[in-house]
Design goal:
8 helices, single chain, alpha/beta, two-stranded antiparallel sheet, 11 strands, 219 residues, elongated, 9-stranded mixed sheet
Length: 219
């Protein structure tokens, strides 16, 4: 699929500034990819519109096809059609993605050339790191709904990724979730000031009565 609808750019940027944990909470604790999806280096943060790739196991041909469909600001999201840990992605593909303005890769499989990718500062969140190579022999699909690390992701959904993991936001919900995330950040800033002044969370969150009702005793 060559053409897809992309989310509101301002909402996409805002979601990236709020981060994975806040976005996850703001949309009702939904959208998180599996816990095994980790960044290949610390400190990476991205947000962007998903270009999705469905790949055969052990075959990275469709990643090359997908690059032609990407636009600046996109995030490539790739998953094999059955579980695979092979190293689908390395520094040459990253060089091509950078040339097309792609912000990062989310892949429910393996990557390699991690040292070079880190030097390039090309962000990747992957299932694993493994030097095992792949072939180019079979077809898959680009810009179709996929299941990546336990989450259904459609082309054009917002992807937010940082040290806490990866979360997906449905394209149609991007503006609403961004507004909810801002409200949450504003509320947390006020609580942070109160906690820094020495006030207890027990009082800020009005926990004492509930704890007493459950039988908590101070002795």
């Amino acid at each position: 699929m060559r053409e897809i609808a992309r989310p509101d750019p301002a909402a996409t940027t805002a979601l990236g500034t709020y981060g994975v944990a806040t976005v996850h909470e703001a949309q009702g604790r939904t959208g998180l990819l599996a816990a095994y999806m980790r960044p290949i280096y610390a400190g990476a943060m991205v947000s962007g519109s998903a270009v999705t790739v469905l790949m055969p196991p052990g075959d990275n041909w469709m990643l090359h096809v997908a690059i032609e469909m990407c636009r600046p600001g996109d995030v490539l999201v790739a998953a094999p059609s059955s579980p695979c840990s092979d190293g689908y992605f390395g520094d040459l593909l990253a060089t091509s993605l950078q040339a097309h303005g792609v912000r990062g890769l989310i892949i429910d499989a393996g990557v390699r050339d991690v040292s070079t990718l880190t030097q390039m500062k090309f962000p990747v969140w992957s299932k694993n790191i493994w030097a095992q190579g792949t072939v180019k022999a079979s077809l898959g699909a680009v810009n179709v709904p996929i299941i990546c690390a336990g989450q259904r992701i459609e082309p054009g959904d917002v992807i937010v990724a940082d040290d806490d993991g990866v979360v997906a936001v449905n394209r149609a919900d991007a503006v609403r979730v961004a507004e909810a995330a801002k409200q949450r950040v504003d509320a947390e800033e006020e609580k942070r000031k109160r906690l820094a002044s020495g006030e207890l969370g027990l009082d800020i969150y009005k926990m004492r009565e509930k704890l007493k009702a459950l039988g908590l005793e101070y002795r």
